[in-house]
Design a protein that fits this description.
- The complex is a heterodimer.
- Chain A folds into two domains: 28 residues, no CATH class; 212 residues, MetI-like (MetI-like fold, Orthogonal Bundle), CATH 1.10.3720.
- Chain A is built from 13 helices and no strands.
- The two termini of chain A are 32 Å apart.
- Chain B is mostly helical.
- Chain B has one domain: Orthogonal Bundle (MetI-like fold), CATH 1.10.3720.
- Helices cover 65% and strands 0% of the residues of chain B.
- Chain B contains twelve helices and no strands.
- In chain B, α4 packs across α7.
- Classes of the chains: A mainly alpha, B mainly alpha.
Chain lengths: 271, 292
Amino acid sequence: MKTWTKILLYTLCTAFALIVVLPFLMMILGSVKNARESALFGLDLPTEYAWDNYGKVLSKASVIRGFLNTIFISLATVILTDIAAAMAAFVIQRRPGRASRVSYYLLLVGLVMPVSIIPTIKLMMSLGIHNSYSGLILYFTAVNLSFAVFLIAGFMGSVPKELDEAAIVEGSSYTRLFFKIILPLLKTVIVTNTIITVLAVWDDFFGPFYLVSNSKKWTIVMSMYTFVSQYQTNWGLVFAFMMLMILPMLLMYFFLQRFIIEGITAGSVKG
Amino acid sequence: MTRNKRGNYPYAFLIPALAIFGILFLAPTLTGFYYSLTDWNINKKGINFIGLQNFRELFADHKLIAAFWHTIVYSISVTVLRNLAGLALALMLNESLKLKNLFRTVFFLPYVISPIVIGYLFTAIYNPGHGLINVALRAIGLGALAGDWLNDPALALASTIMVDVWRTSGFAMVIYLAGLQAIPVELYESASIDGSRYWTTFGRIVFPLIAPSLTINLVLSLIGTMKVFVMILVLTNGGPGYTTEVLNTYIMSAFSLGLYGQGTAANILLIAVIMLICFPVLTFLQKREVAL
């Protein structure tokens, strides 16, 4: 590559990188500014550092609750999604036939179709799970299952079928084969799916907004939504809350980036 | 393994996934078609079948028509811009730059941040007085272009579109990069980036080979953006006036007024638009891939 091409590419990349980074920089700086300075949305350093913004945000009971709820709900959703999706993907990939094909296509509907949220509320009310953790967990599982099955079924093809045959010949049951041999081999794709599911639960506004009216059961997204309408006048606090909210996602991104990228590109190259 | 004495892979393994998905996703989708034909609302005890009445009312409502068109404009604009930006970024990072991993990490970063955080962040960036955009414009002598991005009816929709492009271009980039890296180097190494042949090679060899990436990007983008909700809610809440109203914000206001039947009917409309746009796009693009 000629030098001038390289310079041009670096200049362009740096310019785009700045467009991405500057808003975040403004947020980071704003999170340690007082109410007056943070409302100027500048990129200058604070005249005095308001570190206690973070303490103030964390002292709100609703914020802590929001975090704990999100952790609990995403954990339960992940376990449910990973196991249900892996079991389904196992049979779908290993046993070709009409039942598998129909199940797979039905599940894939979820990749395209938007959630019918108002009927979902009605359904949850009649099942007695509206406004409950279990309702929210089941909702998140349902909306994340489609992609999970798609992802895991794609990976299952790379697990040699000879393993199954050997195990079955030795007298193992299919249940044992799945949990003792197959599941451990799916580790990589399970990690990928776990991260993608956690991100989805962490980010989702639609579910908690419509399905949970009891603020004690809200996830962090809803805590933020109400927090902002309450503390609009103090952007320092809002920025500090944003920082706290994105921190877990950023850590996950920086340490587990490979898995996220793998999950996203899975199947996309093959089409 | 075929059916034998030892049995076969148990279909029972499908049950957990099918039960959860069937009950919590498919069932409400199907009952939704029925509820969209009823007068279900907060003030009535019973739910009565009223035929297409909800749809007639929806199409007579200026706000719904606005929401419908904004959803389509939003979706197509974000899709086009995201793919242009994503492809450009991917092509740059496909060259041998030492810092390309760093750039890739940065470009993809917004995608892992909650849309609600990005929405609030951009209400600050778009602030007419001190927001970064207007400050930057004034600093380079283009103060005349500075606007009230989210409150000017002529600019509001475009402003929300740009936030989504900013947020998701890195996602498109990652998919294009995966496609580019799957192309054997020998196929295009003769065309160095310096030569005028770069664009010829791109058009004749590279672009056709990344067609699957284009397909997946376009379809994912169209589907995702038509469901846009929280970003609009946080940035403009559908305003000023109805200028940024989209189908999901319309459904929310129908819901908060207790008009459940009508809200559900609006959702059926959203489903219909997604199907009508995505299937032809998918079929067309896949035919093209085969032809290439």
